[in-house]
Amino acid sequence: MGILQSLAAVFKRHPKPPPSLGFDPEDFIYVKIPGNIQPMERGELFEDRIDPVLAAGGLGSVSGGGSSLGDARSDGSRLVEFCGIDIDTTQRDGALAALRDVLPKLDAPMGTQLHYTRAGVRLQDELTAHGWSMGQPRVYLHPGFGI
Questions:
Q1: Where does 69-135 have alpha helices with state H?
Q2: What pLDDT is recorded for position 147?
Q3: What is the C-alpha to C-alpha distance for residues 102 and 31, in angstroms, rounded to an integer?
Q4: φ, ψ dihedrals at 116, nearest 5°
């Protein structure tokens, strides 16, 4: 499949626009995955596998994703520092539990984070060598939505 067909497949799979200004951050989870994971890899390795898990439980769906480039290297090139997956959820806590279960099974790297909001407080869970460190304060904001 060519790059244009691949991109068309991604946009067809995720046609939903970003949340509007009236978006409720309590219904949103951002999965931040460290590493040089390219956009097509992100879809194949994570998005395409997470979405059915959420759908099966009636917990929500993958609504988008993106990549963040690191600083320029000496040759001017930049690698992907981390990628992110946007999750619109109907049951935040159930979706978080499902994500904490499935991400290690998908070989998500250590340092993978789940960003969410509970009662107006920005929190994150982080995958460590000893499991999930949960409910930690979060200062990082979603690069596109600022939540």
A1: 92-105
A2: 83
A3: 12
A4: -155, 170
| One-letter amino acid of 87 | I
Confidence (pTM): 0.82
The token duo for 76 is: 């001017």
Where do the structural domains in the chain lie, given as residue ranges?
Answer: 24-137
Distances in whole angstroms, Cα of residue 66 to Cα of each of 38, 97, 123, 132, 133 = 9, 23, 20, 23, 24
DSSP 6: H
Residues 6+ apart with CB under 8 A from 54: 60, 61, 62, 87, 89, 95, 98
The predicted-structure confidence for 75-126, as pLDDT tens digits, reads as follows: 988 888 999 999 999 999 999 999 999 999 999 999 999 999 999 999 999 9
Q: How confident is the model over 32-67, as pLDDT tens digits?
A: 999 999 999 999 999 999 999 999 999 999 999 999
DSSP E strands in 28-112: the ranges are 28-34, 60-69, 80-89
**What architecture does CATH give domain 24-137?**
2-Layer Sandwich (3.30)
